[in-house]
Amino acid sequence: MKLFRASCHHIMTGAAKGGLFRNTRTVTSRSTPFDENGLHEVMLRQKVDASLVTVRKVLDTARNPQLAEDVPHKYADKYLLAEYMTNGHCASLLTTLRLLGMTDEHMKTMKQWSSDRTVTLRFSSRHKCTFLEKKTREVDSDKKDVVTGAAFSMSKKTVTTVTEYFWKFECGYELSAYKGNEPQEKIVIKQRDGASTKVKTTTDKSPQVEAKEYPSIDVELTWLLQHVNAENGQVSFSIDRSHKHCLTPLRNEDAEKAVTFSLSVDKWSRRVAAQLQKFFGVVQDNTLDMSSLQSSGDGFLPFAPLLEEGRKGDAQLPQLKQRRVEATQTDTVVEYKKQHEGDVPAVLEGTDLEALLQEEERQIVERLETVAKAFPASGGEGLITQDEARLMILLSDALSKLNGYSECMDYLEVMLRKQLVAAIGKEITASDFAAYMQFHNRKMFKEEYAPKPLCLAVRRPNHYPEGTVSFVAKADDVTGENPTLMLTRKLEAGTVPQMKFALSAAAEVTLCGETQVHAYIGHRFSFEQPPPMTLAARSRQFSGYVLLLGRIGGADLFLPSHAMIVQNKDEFDIPLMLDEIPSAQEFRDAIESLSPEQQRFAKAYRSMQLESTLFAVCIVQIKPQLEKVLDLPYDSLTKEIQLTQRLLELFIEYHIPPDLVSFQCDSMEDPDEIPAAKKVEAVKAHVDAMFAMIKDSKQKELDEQKMQHEMKHGKIETVSASKASVPQRSSAYCYGEGMGPIPMESSLLPDVLPQSPVDPTQAALRESTPTDASLPDGMVDVSEFPNALEKQFDFFSDAACIRPTIIKPADSWTKRYQPKLLSDVKTSNVGSDQQTKEKNRAFDLLDALTRSGVLTIEESSMHIVLGATHCFDETLVDTLVKKNVNPIEHVERSMLIVAATLFGQQPQDLVKDAVIDRVEKYSPMLFLL
């Protein structure tokens, strides 16, 4: 069952305990009058059906008003319906006030007050409890004992002495109105003093406090009085549709104030009823029929949400004693006819409402007269008289109407939601919207600017890929993983500085490959999280590459935080966290009232946050760089699978300097004249020699350990200490990880051995100056993209919901690998410790491939992802229904702002000619870029 949004909670807490009210709701405090609640649709239909019985009796038999959703109508009719219901509700409240005792003179005085001061309706009450007398009486027991003998008979019974205390409980109350903060200058609408009853107790303790003045119960009537005509007392309410904050028939300042006022009166009525109920509870041996004061909760609503198809205009009804609602909709109806080619609004006319309000008053008066016969006449000393019964009935009826008004206004949004779902065929979700936006972008953008899946093939030109790196999003268990679409701009060589990153404190690597900038624009509704994004790295068998993740620290500075070698069918799934930071407008609003020092600190920290929105992915191909460091011709290692694997093992596992296995030609030979096969064979020979030395070194270490073991157990009598000692490290030995010394000829050693790689996060990185002034003309500073977007978003107030997003790897990854060719695939969790090991292995390899930064890396690709998220406060459907916002146009606008900044083009140059007019119509501000 679909639920209506309602303004209050079910079942009152105070007066409901006495059983006087049913099917009512309790008002709770909140920031807005439109929180979600659980009112079933069938409840309102029952009330409307009950009201329609009376409506058909009042109107002409040819008339056929129905529930609004069952009648064809225009969107403007919903505004007219909101005005119709509010005017009827206000007139109904005024009827209740008049029946409570408010006269025309009272109304005129309060109306005059409301012109410049607030007007408050106050209910004040008090009681007094005094001791009357003490009485003692004897009560015979019902049980009698009889004793009989031969000549006599005797009976006896128990007599109990009862002491009773009698008290006089008196109460009084007053209903008054006063202006501003002057309660002493008041108008008394109704009051009663001297109401009393006798209370009996069995102890001398008073049943009530001797005397008490209860806190006053106030409600402000200013809003109601401001919508009453001072001359004739008629109600006049309308919605300003031209106001910038007017979103829907319910989401506008006028309707919100009406609902807020209704809630305040609802709360006041419940408190007054609870206070009277407390007085009534003192009465003992009450023989009055209190059930007659109960309200069924489904009575007649003169302002029910009714529309009528095929109306011809205002049918003037006879028997109208007076008009309680001004014909304020005349101008609105004229405008309606202009906009809808002479059609008449489907909402009922003012004369219809007048007739229904008169019928409502007649029913209330009839009930008051009926109930009055069951209660003592007014003016007596009894605690409950016709005055109190009248007051309780009017409060009960007012609560029913107040509750009904809230439900009727809520129904406007419920109807909109149902009509939207009916038009689409289902209730759409955020994933449905994401799928639509992919379709929308294909239709809007030109081919060269359209978002594309970010799936990168790691390959040389004209070669089969070594593997892939892709950004994927998992929408749900049914659709599975989908590639993430991003805007992509490829920066031409020479237009962007070469990126550098530190391997250690003494080694810096230069990347000379291509650079691409991507823009990710996500969207999030309410507190729903967008689909999880994952960076998936895959490699093929006997293939591999190095993957580095980090952020951009300047125009030419890459700061890697993670690195890994992806080879031999490895699969890494790296979840990405999307951390939003405040939008440009949110940041500006937040620092507006800070001191200059605090603002400077916040701006400095935000500049770091904006720079962190540049997530960088660097891919380094291994085979091309191996060929370069070994002085081998291009493409010579493509089919040398075993050699490539053995070289990686030497560099990664044993930290062998690449100079020990690289090709070196004689000084008399021309390197270009030497065949590639000869060079490869020379490298193979060096590799074989290195593995032979490693094998010999391992065997020697095993022999030494065996000798030490035998000496320890006395199997060898004497051993020279010099023979048993382990050789010390010297310049003639090379040490590998987990192995002993490897003897080498001194001629094979390089002049300077490479230093062990140091974690760059612990190294002192050079300062970068990512300003345009530090770059030659025509060069692109990628680190300035976040600032450029910040300026664009700050320019458009409509873009206040676009938040820069920091993309970074999560703490835990998943790795799938195959240890051996014939073994099964294994899955492992890559935590922080394992991530550090993976990074060290990757940096060890890069250190060897670049000769500790001496060689540049040509076969690399740098992919910089700029993140932003369009955030909506409501769910997708509520964004449409409550905010009257088309999220398609807003996300489209965000996409065009980002695309224009990324590509350096005007929005009209990015989209297809067929959609330019539509974009300019609904987003004219974009053409100011």
Description of the structure:
With 929 residues, this protein is α+β, with helices and mostly antiparallel strands. It is 35% helix and 24% strand. The chain contains 21 helices and 30 strands. The strands form 7 sheets. It has a 15-stranded mixed sheet that branches. Strand 6 and strand 7 form a beta hairpin. Helix 2 packs antiparallel against helix 8, helix 5 runs antiparallel to helix 8 and helix 16 packs across helix 19. The longest helix has 39 residues. The radius of gyration is 44 Å and the shape is elongated.
What kind of sheet is the major sheet? 15 strands, mixed
**With helices defined by DSSP (H or I, 4 residues minimum), what is the helix count?**
21
Q: Helical amount among residues, as a percent range?
A: 25-40%
Poorly predicted parts: 1-38, 313-321, 328-334, 717-773
How would you classify the helix and strand content by structural class? alpha+beta
Shape: elongated
Determine the strand fraction and express it as a percent band.
Answer: 15-25%
Radius of gyration: 44 Å
Q: Give the number of DSSP strands.
A: 30
Query: For the terminal residues, how far apart are their CA atoms?
Result: 48 Å
Integer average pLDDT: 82
